[in-house]
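On clarity, I found the account of how folds are encoded harder to follow than it need be. For illustration, here is how one protein appears when written out as sequence plus structure tokens:

:::
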Amino acid sequence: MFQRNILLSKFSSYRIGGPAKYFFEARNLSELQLALKEAEKINEKVFILGGGTNILFRDEGFDGIVIKISLSYIRQIDSDLLIVGAGAQIKELLDYCIDNSLSGWEWAGGLPGTLGGAIRGNAGAFGGETKDGILQVISLDKKDPDKFIIRNNNECFFSYRDSIFKKSAVDEIILEAKLAVKKGDKEIIKSAIEEKINYRFERNPMDYPNCGSVFKNVDLKIFPSKFLPLVKNEIKTDPFPVVPAAFLISECGLKGVKEGGAMISSKHPNFIINYSNATAYDVRQLIRLVKEKVYDKFEVVLEEEIIIL
């Protein structure tokens, strides 16, 4: 049932990555459960893939099974509730909201990836976060594919770019979520979403393959006080006061620095772009360089927002 030696670069917005030993795309729950049980039989490690928008696959590929979650349904239950599959693209969700005059997710305009990935990392932008609209999440135990786990918002332990699915529930697969919405004006909703999309294209290097912001912004609470005079005019709320990683990287003079086919973007230095057939090694070298230089200058250890498999 599994495909063999499928290039993972096809499934990453970085367009980087070697082959997966085995690959499978689960389009419904039954297929997912069957794939997990088969993986257990042949004793192969499993990686669950969503939209591939925040992941750097290694050049060597993955010595196991990559299962791509493509449960992409969107169902409206009533005027203030949606049930959405984890494999639904955020763009699909926003298009659905526009078509049905549903408000509450405008902040996610231009956000890449799937709902499942957004829940796992509590993706956020423009002062909003995924957790703001989540009522309930249903997940599947990776080791016991017949076991379902239902959590309300509080039980997901959302925090800044984080959730229980990155921690104690790391062996669970997000299947679907109940989303809060509310009726609104279609044109106002559409305009608000388009505004966010246009903002991203104006300020981010969208003309090159990338995985968005590589590093998390730094919580102002842990930023060394002796350097605050240098950053006081750059502090933003996201959704609490943070020092933008892009500013710290820029202050280290790293805009435009290259390694092989990878480059720290001059347009937005928290983006490392694949400008010329970059390898995962190239990107990882720039990540290492950024972390070293920012620590040397600001005594802050930047934390990666992307996943390096």
